[in-house]
Design a protein that fits this description.
This protein is of the alpha+beta class. It is built from three helices and three strands. The chain binds zinc ion.
Length: 66
């Protein structure tokens, strides 16, 4: 099932740890400054992690690489 393995890898790679302070509403950083994800409420959080949408991932990579 090579297709399944590929999709699992993709999902893992797109998974970001959600900022716990943001979840409590106490994070003082912006989404781009914080190294953890600040997902909108429309994003599904699972076990403290969220699968990033491509737009937020691009923004995150910009700040991580800077
Ligand atoms: Zn944060």
């Amino acid at each position: 099932m090579a297709l399944n393995i590929a999709s699992i890898r993709d999902t893992k790679w797109l998974t970001l740890e959600v900022c716990r302070q943001f979840q409590r509403g106490t994070c003082s950083r912006s989404d781009e400054e914080c190294k953890f994800a600040h997902p909108p409420k429309s994003c599904q959080v699972e076990n403290g992690r969220v699968i990033a949408c491509f737009d937020s991932l691009k923004a995150a990579h910009r700040s991580w690489l800077a």
